[in-house]
Amino acid sequence: MTYMKENKSSKNKEIDPSTFVETIITKHGKPGFNMAMEVMGSTIAQQHLSPFSRIRRIDWKDTAELANLFKSGSLETQYGTFFAQRYIDFLGQNFEQISDIHWRKFEALTCEFFERHGYYVEIGPGSNDGGIDARAWQIDPNADGPPAILIQCKRRKDKVDSGVVKALYADVLHENAGRGLIVTTSGLSPSADEVRHAREYPIDQADRSTLKKWIEVMRTPGTGIFM
């Protein structure tokens, strides 16, 4: 938009669209004005949708907000469907603390990753979920198809045992799902890994190293130690 000009009086270097709008009205009249407003509205909407735009980057107000990452199971978030972008950026710089975040926030982080990669995600109730923490579809779940992935989250420091693998496989069969996924801050125990390979269970794992890659992918560019 070559008619846009920088607002010199703003410390935030905001863009003043008045020159652009006035020029469009002079040259193209009301139809041009309506089209210009539609373009600007679309641009603003995209800025709000992107977790990486300046308009959506909000600083921590106090330590209580950060403490919620570790103490609160609330899924409420201003920016992000399940998990706040600020929490992702914090974990990008302090990944060693991922084992200490609230277990419900860990489920939310997992759902946020899949949602950002184009899946339709349904997070479980958090308790009495029958062992399934989340379900992910590659197409709209309103089509009544089975989930592509059944997800079990294990925020723990000890290894995940074979019983978890067997239970998840039973759920995959019951729901006719494509695969199962165990997301853990540790990893599968040798016996659990042996069971899924020997019996050819369609069960994958996202272990601690995988989670670190997820955080690196989702963090705001220019934050943290990975530039």
Q: What would your notes on this structure say?
A:
With 227 residues, this protein is of the alpha/beta class. It folds into 2 domains: 5-49, no CATH class; 67-218, Trna Endonuclease, Chain: A, domain 1 (3-Layer(aba) Sandwich). The chain is 43% helix and 12% strand. It has 7 helices and 7 strands; from the N terminus they run ββααααβββαβαβα. The strands form 2 sheets. Strands 3-4-5-6-7 form a 5-stranded mixed beta sheet, sandwiched between helices. The chain has a two-stranded antiparallel ribbon with strand order 1-2. α5 (162-175) packs parallel to α6 (190-198). It is elongated. Mean pLDDT is 82; it is low at 1-14 and 47-58.
Average pLDDT figure: 82
* Rg, nearest Å: 22 Å
- Biggest sheet, spatial arrangement of strands: 3-4-5-6-7
Number of contiguous helices: 7
Total domain count: 2
The helix/strand class is alpha/beta
CATH architecture of the largest domain: 3-Layer(aba) Sandwich
Question: Under the CATH scheme, which class of the largest domain?
Answer: Alpha Beta
Count of β-strands: 7
